[in-house]
Amino acid sequence: MAKELPISFVEQMKPRLQSEYALFEASLFTEPPVSVRLNGRKSNATDKDEKFAPVNTSVVPWCNMGRYLNRRPLFTLDPLLHAGAYYVQEASSMFLQNVVEQYLPHDAITLDLCAAPGGKSIVLSDWLSEGFLVSNEIIPSRCAILSENLTKWGNIRSAVTNNAPVAFEKLPQLFDAVLVDVPCSGEGMFRKDDTAVDEWSEANVANCVTRGREILESALVTLRDGGLLIYSTCTFNEQEDEQQVEWLMEQGCELLKVKIDDTWNIEETNGYHFWPHRVKGEGLFMAVLRKMGDADRKSKPLKVRKSIFTKAPKEVQTVLSGDTFEFAVHNGVWRAVPKSFSWLVDSLLQCTKVVHWGVDVMEEKGKSFIPQQGLATSFALNREAFPSAEVDRITALHFLSAEAIVLNDAPKGFVLLTYKSAPLGFVKNIGSRCNNLYPNAWRIRMNWTEADLD
């Protein structure tokens, strides 16, 4: 951060931090730490630690899949990022893993109400091995990024929606847990983003409080009695943090205590504060509450007028593994979701704008079935259904740039490309060249050369 801090912000923080204020302010003018979250289902953590050599790594204390890097590599030109082998995520926000390990069942139906770009949704999706995640974002362009990031990560027990939070009031008492990472005044991002400094004002803080409370009201409607509410901001002030938690308690929520280690240097109030002069991370506040009521009550299904699901062709069914699936076709593309959650997808489609759900499997064109990108990066991919070709980094980057490539030794037809064993996507090998099936909207846009590679 190169700019001066707003005077009103300084006046608020000095009495709050007292003798620590000078250290706090100095921390905002230092380079932020670089951290990533590893995807344990793409390859093991040791492999990915080795991948970052010569960038040394260390473990994020409150998240066993988090790693600090000692410098920032050029992530765009790493095929493993595009394959979903890891996600570039701010370390403090990984505290969510510590929360869900203590309070969230693996089979919970969970809503991330303000989810883009997707870091916290990725933490949730990793944990919900038997559950289902709905990731919502109100801004369409950010929703597209959210959908891309979750698709690359690979968990198909999820849906991405594009709605104002109030839309979920049509689904009362549905969710076992709701994460509300509200739009905030962004004080915790001052070090990383000069725009956050420019946009900060006391009036904006007040607006964020009002907007945050409206979002929380919708969250409480769609959260079942006894359900878990996780409230989060990337700001420091008490109005958006502690005072919002106090309001939630007045609405009948019980504040829950999260176990933390003293060595983490996290401040505990009626939530948990991450201060950049105390921790190796950015500013964050997180609180965990339970909505009072019958904790044994199950999520309440919505009565659906008509299900979209139908029987899929054998060519579609056989490319998936690991679950029993229900299938539906939309705009010529067959999609699949675990059978136990088809009712939830029907409910979402009836009441909300759904951008993506489950996994895109195959596009049906006449008698042909074309494998989709979501299938390539999905945990549900049956790797034996397609021949694969391991490619080097240069070839992988040409593929990810949506350029034509040549595979001399691969069979003709649809081929799954892999890089360091991680699936990247499909090509159709016609012999002299390959038709690239990578989504054009996801392509690498920078003009790179081999000289740009580490």
Topology (SSEs and partners):
Layout lengths: L6 H11 L3 H7 L6 E5 L6 H7 L5 E4 L2 E7 L9 H4 L3 E3 L6 H9 L5 E4 L6 H9 L4 E5 L3 H14 L4 E4 L13 E7 L12 H6 L2 H21 E11 L8 H9 L2 E4 L10 E2 L3 E3 L9 E8 L22 H4 L7 E6 L2 E6 L3 H10 L2 E4 L1 E7 L2 E4 L1 H5 L10 E3 L2 H8 L12 E7 L2 E8 L4 E3 L18
Parallel strand pairs: 5-6, 5-8, 6-7, 8-9, 19-20
Antiparallel strand pairs: 1-3, 1-4, 2-3, 7-16, 9-13, 10-13, 11-12, 12-13, 14-15, 15-17, 17-18, 20-21, 21-22
Helix pairs in contact: 5-6
The structure class reads: alpha+beta
The major sheet is characterized as: 10 strands, mixed
- The residue-averaged pLDDT reads 94
* Beta-strand percentage range: 25-35%
Computed over alpha carbons, the radius of gyration is 23 Å
- Multimeric status of the protein: single chain
Count of helical segments?
14
Uncertain runs: none
Q: What level of helicity do the residues show?
A: 25-40%
User: Shape, please?
Assistant: globular
Number of DSSP strands?
Answer: 22
Give the end-to-end Cα distance, rounded to a whole number of Å: 27 Å
Describe this structure in words.
With 454 residues, this protein is an alpha+beta fold. It contains 14 helices and 22 strands. The strands form four sheets. Strands 5, 6, 7, 8, 9, 10, 11, 12, 13 and 16 form a ten-stranded mixed sheet that branches. Strands 2-3-1-4 form a four-stranded antiparallel sheet. Helix 5 runs parallel beside helix 6. The two termini are 27 Å apart.
